[in-house]
Specification:
- It is globular, with a radius of gyration of 20 Å.
- The strands form 3 sheets. Strands 1-11-8-7-5-6 form a 6-stranded parallel beta sheet, sandwiched between helices.
- It starts with 20 loop residues before the first helix and ends with a helix.
- It has 2 domains: 153 residues, NAD(P)-binding Rossmann-like Domain (Rossmann fold); 90 residues, Rossmann fold (3-Layer(aba) Sandwich), CATH 3.40.50.
- The protein has 13 helices and 11 strands.
- Strand 2, helix 5 and strand 3 form a beta-alpha-beta unit.
- By secondary structure, it is an alpha/beta fold.
- 41% of the residues lie in helices and 14% in strands.
- The protein binds 5,10-Methenyltetrahydrofolate.
- The site of 5,10-Methenyltetrahydrofolate has 18 residues, from helix 5, strand 4 and helix 13.
């Protein structure tokens, strides 16, 4: 991750602009618009220093325990062990780390994991061949192609090749299409957005009738997160790099899902007192005190948010671990479905 992403400033109260994406579209440096003293006064006004930390790490652990029990019940009663195949193309450091974590997570719950590591200069056809092999392998119940793929590959061709019954990432257009339609059910819901909603559920945050704002419109997080919130009867807005008044819209949100990939972009002053914040961002920022030389921060300025919001997910330890737990859950769902195991 650190190798591929530039570093931004690490502290919320930096005098530098906190937004690069939004700065392009004419929103000025946040420090000019909202001083840190303004932020402090908002916090004092609401007198809420008791915002809850939404502990994704421990919820993910709880879910992994539930999955472990189900995997062993399935193995004992029908002799089937769920299997997940992960295809990694190239040697991006962050991708390799994620894939390693997914493999460890599989082992921890008793799911079989298969891994294909293909060189950066592989052809699209070679990747498609691996997918075809896993599509036909009955011991594989889920197939995940780690993104991003090398730039010479057509992501759409590759994601379309994954059998929809094994599309545990939920990225197949038919799964996304069903997610978008009322009265239809996708076979799989994308892991990161599913993890966000699961956190809201497990923390008893009601979604129905609430104003939700999703920041970012990516295929893998923002868009499906907005669809899921809408399915839960929230009134949903999507804020993106071309939104003319992002802060104004974000300030109306009872629930914020931030998924832009900009360190500390969302400031305390953008947050409605009492809002619930799910921070999907995982951004490396320089940190000389860390042995790695960097640390991870979210898209939301945590120190500011925690004083104003009623609940916030930390980074790390928030959405990240949930993403992996949902991947395991989707793999289990897939295996149960093909084997008609309730
Ligand atoms: N086909 C595909 N499916 C994915 O689900 C997918 C992907 N491609 N490409 C990249 C993103 C990113 N992603 C993460 C998963 C777990 C953590 C995670 O567990 N993070 C930990 C700590 C991470 C650390 O310390 O390095 C945390 O936030 O606490 C992060 C990021 C899945 N992704």
């Amino acid at each position: 991750m650190a190798s591929s992403v530039f570093f931004t400033h690490s502290h919320c109260y930096s005098s530098k602009p906190s937004s690069l994406v939004f700065r392009q579209v004419g929103v000025g440096p946040t420090s000019l618009r909202f001083s840190s003293s303004h932020v402090a006064s908002v916090a004092a006004m609401t007198m809420d220093s008791s915002a809850k930390v939404i502990d994704g790490k421990s919820v993910a652990k709880q879910i992994r325990d539930e999955i472990t029990a189900e995997v062993s019940r399935m193995r004992e009663s029908i002799g089937v062990i769920p299997g997940l195949a992960v295809i990694l193309v190239g040697d991006r450091k962050d991708s390799a780390t994620y894939v390693r974590n997914k493999k460890k997570a599989c082992e921890s719950v008793g799911i079989n994991s298969l891994e294909a590591n293909l060189p950066e200069d592989s052809t699209e056809e070679e990747v498609l061949n691996y997918i075809a092999g896993y599509n036909d392998d009955p011991s594989v119940h889920g197939i995940l192609v780690q993104l991003p793929l090398p730039s010479h590959m057509n992501e759409q061709n590759i994601l379309n090749a994954v059998r929809i019954e094994k599309d545990v990432d939920g990225f197949h257009p038919l799964n996304i299409g069903r997610l978008a339609m009322r009265g239809r059910e996708p076979l799989f819901v994308p892991c990161t957005p599913k993890g966000c909603i699961e956190l809201l559920h497990r923390y008893n945050v009601s979604i129905k009738g609430k104003r939700a704002v999703v920041i970012g419109r990516s295929n893998i997080v923002g868009m499906p997160a907005a669809l899921l919130l809408q399915r839960e009867d929230a009134t949903v807005s999507i804020v993106h790099s071309r939104t003319s008044n992002p802060e104004e819209i974000i300030r109306q949100a009872d629930i914020i899902i931030a998924a832009v990939g900009q360190a500390n972009m969302v400031r305390g002053s953008w947050i409605k007192p009492g809002a619930v914040i799910i921070d999907v961002g995982i951004n490396p920022v320089e940190d000389p005190n860390s042995p790695r030389g960097y640390k991870l921060v979210g898209d939301v300025c945590y120190e500011e948010a925690i004083r104003i919001a009623s609940a916030v997910t930390p980074v790390p330890g928030g959405v990240g671990p949930m993403t992996i737990a949902m991947l395991l859950q989707n793999t289990l769902i897939s295996a149960k479905r093909v084997h008609h195991f309730e």
